[in-house]
């Protein structure tokens, strides 16, 4: 009897079609791409703030089911570059057009197609992809912020602008329409074996998420140009064995916040170190939640002059496609 059950199980799985593919998320800055990514993955993979240019890298989030694997890719917003860092961010977004099995072009109810020439050029490439047969889904986000009349007008506009694409209105923040979008994506994936182990959540190492959490707190705590002049690098990451005092163990992290100028260093530190202490406290809480264990976090501030315009420094910080 056991053998018959095993044979039936093998036959069932032999005929069970497995779908897998790369689902790349692109669009203008601040339209909710990272919020959508986290909602679809069901984990906090990308950092989220109300400020544009929050996402700097291309980040993978992997969702697995018995018969599918979705490899989501969050990308920086498409913008006209003003320095080398932004040029590289735009390249990350453009690279998402190359390997997409399903492309999510995210816009929102306040977005426009004519922000700058790079946005218009990018949209033209999306149109060509849709015309060539790539599955393109136009995700109209933040519909909780508009009226039914305006929503209908926007859906009509996007159906005419991208006639080969499916238009799906959602609110990623309110989780409205996300499950329906998930099913549309799953059914659009090609038949394929999984690309990653079924227990893998992302392609990024633990240190990357520590960097991103610290940078998120800087974006939230400082104004004007300061957050955009900052890069974070984890210099030490040590996981210690469980003890009576720390039954789950403890992670000891040393990270450096790099700025471009001496004056920015003083702003990051704040009076008597108060501003830096606030960033460290808020970051530590989120890092502990992410790893589910206590964290000891030390932050240092150093000057890396004009790093955003220095190609070798950008490569050192991971802003390189090669």
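-> sequence recovered:
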């Amino acid at each position: 009897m056991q053998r018959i059950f095993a044979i039936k199980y093998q036959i069932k799985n032999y005929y069970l079609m497995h779908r897998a593919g790369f689902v790349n998320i692109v669009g203008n800055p601040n339209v909710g791409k990272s919020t959508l990514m986290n909602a679809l993955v069901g984990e906090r993979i990308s950092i989220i703030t109300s400020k544009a240019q929050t996402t700097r890298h291309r980040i993978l989030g992997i969702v697995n089911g018995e018969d599918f694997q979705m490899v989501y890719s969050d990308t920086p917003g498409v913008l006209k570059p003003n320095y080398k860092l932004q040029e590289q961010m735009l390249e990350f977004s453009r690279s998402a057009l190359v390997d997409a099995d399903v492309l999510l072009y995210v816009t929102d109810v306040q977005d426009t197609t004519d922000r700058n020439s790079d946005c218009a050029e990018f949209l033209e490439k999306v149109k060509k992809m849709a015309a060539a047969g790539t599955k393109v889904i136009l995700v109209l986000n933040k519909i909780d912020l508009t009226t039914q009349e305006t929503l209908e007008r926007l859906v009509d506009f996007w159906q005419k602008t991208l006639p080969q694409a499916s238009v799906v209105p959602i609110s990623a923040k309110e989780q409205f329409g996300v499950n329906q979008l998930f099913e549309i994506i799953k059914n659009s994936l090609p038949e394929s074996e999984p690309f990653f182990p079924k227990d893998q959540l992302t392609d990024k190492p633990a240190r990357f998420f520590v960097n991103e959490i610290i940078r998120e707190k800087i974006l939230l705590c400082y104004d004007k140009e300061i957050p955009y002049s900052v890069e974070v690098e984890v210099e030490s990451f040590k996981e210690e064995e469980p003890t009576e005092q720390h039954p789950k163990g403890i992670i000891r992290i040393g990270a450096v916040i790099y700025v471009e100028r001496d004056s920015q260093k003083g702003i990051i530190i704040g009076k008597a170190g108060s501003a830096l202490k606030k960033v460290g406290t808020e970051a530590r809480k989120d890092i502990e939640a992410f790893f589910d264990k206590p964290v000891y976090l030390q932050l240092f501030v150093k000057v890396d002059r004009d790093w955003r315009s220095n190609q070798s420094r950008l490569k050192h910080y991971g802003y390189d496609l090669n």
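The chain is about 40% helix and 20% strand.
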